Amino acid sequence: MSQPDAASPETAIRAAVIGAGGAIGRALVARLAADPRFAAVHALSRHPAAVADTPRVVPGLIDVGDPPSIEAAARAIATPLHLVIVATGQLHDGERGPERALKQLDPDWLARSFALNTIGPALVLKAFAPLLPRQGRAAIAVLSARVGSITDNRSGGWYGYRASKAALNMMVRCAAIEIGRTRPEALCVSLHPGTVDSGLSRPFQGHVAPDALFTPERSAAHLLDVLDGLTPAQSGRCFAWDGAEIPP
User: Fold this and answer.
1) pLDDT recorded at residue 49
2) I need a surface site. Which of 43, 47, 196, 235 has the fewest CB within 10 A?
3) Can you tell me the distance from the alpha carbon of 29 to that of 89, in angstroms, rounded to the nearest whole number?
């Protein structure tokens, strides 16, 4: 975020990372906490006790699968946030993985995919967008995925994950239009973090080239660099870790 120096209360800026207990979330929190521009980084997760409580890091409880906890987390902060990043998502759960064929479609698993990958982040937008300042630069971003692009889908499969991320990108687009009416300098975007060495991608890393598998720290650095380089005119779109726009 291109913001003034956070040395005084008048210029202090604050961030929130939702999903701070995950690999990318932890890396984002660490990088933001080391940035002197930020007076505080709210690290929100399902298990806040596991989040490092270091200077400028404020642990808090949130569960994107539990709407009341989302609203409670926003109320607990109740101060302006200049940066909000939703670093959550689900691709698999135990033995249950993404569907590769129509015959594998299951209504309960589809509903779970949409609950965690679309509805939860959308409710974060609802609860946290009002905390963005009405004047000055601010950003709210959600982690999406390249496979959520309908235009770019040439291999099929992964029905629920693809569809839920595509739906998330539409939520972001709608939210960006609405946010822009009262906060013209704010960004609302989707971000693709690359293939990151994390629990989410670990079962699917077999065909990933070593140089294409990012550490969480590298991915976090890329994502924050991308946000720094975007302008309000690009709000509502989806961008990859390298800054390239991903088509809808």
Assistant:
1) 78
2) 47
3) 17
